[in-house]
Protein: ArsA family ATPase
Organism: Pseudonocardia charpentierae
Amino acid sequence: MRMVLFTGKGGVGKTTLAAATAAHLARSGRKTLTVSTDPAHSLGDALEAELGGEPTEVDGVGGLFAAHVDARALLEGAWGRLRDHLATVLAGAGVDELVADELTVLPGVEELLALAAVQRAAQAGPWDVVVVDCGPTAETLRLLALPEAVGGYLERLFPAHRRALRGLMTRDRSDARRWDRTVEALDGLAGELADLHALLASPQTGIRLVLTPERVVAAETRRTLTALALLGLHVDGLVANRMVPVPPPDAPGEAARWLRERGGEQAAVLADLERLGTPLGTVEYTAAEPTGVEALLVLAAQLWGDDDPAVEQPPATPLLAVRRTSGSGRSLDSEFELALHLPGATSAPLDLARIGDELAVTVAGLRRLVALPAVLRRCTVIRARLDGDDLRVAFRPDPALWLR
């Protein structure tokens, strides 16, 4: 099963292009599910269909199903039960009831549940392709970072939870079944988080960044490309929407002059984006808003032509690579270089810090802890620099740790 996620700055047309792509895939004979995690829930408007939480077949093209994810309903369901379990554990450990209630509110849990619901819908049905209409860029970055972040949060909140819970059980045998249910709930959540992270990082999952060819929007797109690379996620391509038609140079009139000027600015933005090396598609500005399956299919034909929007792209360059740059063996004059491949990093605010055995990298407000390879844990950072799309960090052995 192939999964394609569409995201972009609010108002650039990502929902329309996600719906158009899904209709195009269904027309080609593949059973396609398109799901919206965007709180705006405009996917139904684009398809001119009434959508709910369960996949509904869309009229106008066979094999196309669509659904909206209602995160609030999920919050009151499965997560509510798990919260009760966690509160029980904390209360049993002597934590005040009010504090326990606060500790069991995981950050971003609504978005996490929405992503988990997409995964379940994708795996439960006979889909060849799942097209996801994500929220605006900032929300999507938080959404895609959640499986790893929440997994770390749970581990810090309940370290070695199975052992801790079994210890509590021995003190109160009458509550054994309650502790068992809590262990099962925690294990289930941890397993689901691991599956979510594996799905997002899989070569079968690709991301399409939608933008309008304007410098401000393009700058945000570059930062998003870098942030997604930091998360280890692959962007299959960029889509520039609402390209204006450019009249001939000799066309008279103020309108023609304006279109030529606007078209020249858009072309300059596209030329800058092409230097990123990510496949770039374009869609012309339509006179009428493209809603309904027929209009969406016309739009998709312009964007994709004979190309397959669900084809798997070649594997991306690995996020992390380490090499020795000087010295040999265990000599103290050795130097090593850690390279983090971050497309577009030259235009994104970037911060770097060493925290124990991890490197904290912050790009465009998104932070990730990168575990250092064993050899670098016994070294100190001596310098860092940007080299094109690579962040290169140099290390030198720490005499106090190197020969241990």
Observations:
- The chain has 14 helices and 15 strands.
